[in-house]
Amino acid sequence: MLTPARTQRFGSILDAIGNTPLVELKHFSPKEGVRIFAKLEGQNPTGSVKDRIALAMVEQAERDRLISPGQVIIEPTSGNTGISMAMVCKLKGYRFTAVMPANVSGERSELLRAFGAEIVLTDGKKGSNGAIEVAQGLAAEHPDYYMPYQYGNPANPQAHYDGTAPEILDAVPDVTHFVAGLGTSGTLMGVSRRLKEHDERIQVIAGEPDLGDLVQGLRNLDEGFVPPIFDQTLLDKKLDVRSDNGLRFTQELLWREGIFAGVSSGGALSIAVKVGQALDQANIVVLFADGGWKYLSTKLWTRGIDEATEALSDQLLW
Ligand SMILES: Cc1ncc(COP(=O)(O)O)c(C=O)c1O
């Protein structure tokens, strides 16, 4: 039965960012003493965790007087950050340009255009590193453009320190492990710093794709680019996410728990389950960065892993 709960009322969609639900995944618990909880970031207004950092980066730039309405904000992004930036910029009166690899999923560019963003497409074979190079070049050519640069902007991890982590501690005060995928590393850095201040025994584990493998949204640091905000000392472990395994868990999430999440979420869950298998008692929180909508065209849930792998390999090469 649906029990009436508090209904929050907001003055703007920007105020509805964060405070995402945390749901126990009973069907993935490897043993009785090991509980796994998912933080559903797909429930943010544009459907991903990146709403948090887009708002934080823009508001920090406003406080630092780096931007004023009408100005162009440019950012290299494989999609989610761009969509969040487009929404925040639209509401706050900035013009937004997303620089992204030509092979990201069609849903992403459609959504960006719907929010009124300009799109600069870069060589798909060069992945997100190619987009970063092009965006940096454009920003250097146009001194009046502002580039928040999520890979190097302290407001990115700070958004997770201020928001994501306290929400986790509020919902699971006895959390023992935190697992998330690694993209810019902002989620892992910000959440880790706060959780370890709370209790230094809390273990923080990153899921990164096998070198040369593809899990959309994630990166392997050995590819050659280490985000400036990354701090190795805040991670206890990095575990490989195999893309076929990640896709299988993404399917199983929907089938066993009714949770429709993006493909990096299945990857993160595969790591959470692996960590849990080696323990007798644990409360593991895993972060699901986005919902499944932007991956529907891969037909993962209806046609299966092979077809989805092919669809994704067309889009992003790592
Ligand atoms: C779908 C998805 N999952 C996970 C991540 C990783 O998050 P972060 O950039 O905070 O490391 C990203 C970020 O690019 C993403 O788009």
Would you kindly provide a written description of the structure presented here, covering whatever features stand out?
The structure is a single chain. The protein is α/β, with parallel strands linked by helices and 318 residues long. The protein folds into 2 domains: 172 residues, Rossmann fold (3-Layer(aba) Sandwich); 92 residues, 3-Layer(aba) Sandwich (Rossmann fold). The protein has 9 helices and 9 strands. Strands 1-2-9-6-7-8 form a 6-stranded mixed sheet. Helix 3 links the parallel strand 4 and strand 5. Helix 1 crosses helix 2 and helix 1 crosses helix 5. The longest helix has 17 residues. The chain is globular. Pyridoxal-5'-phosphate binds next to helix 6.
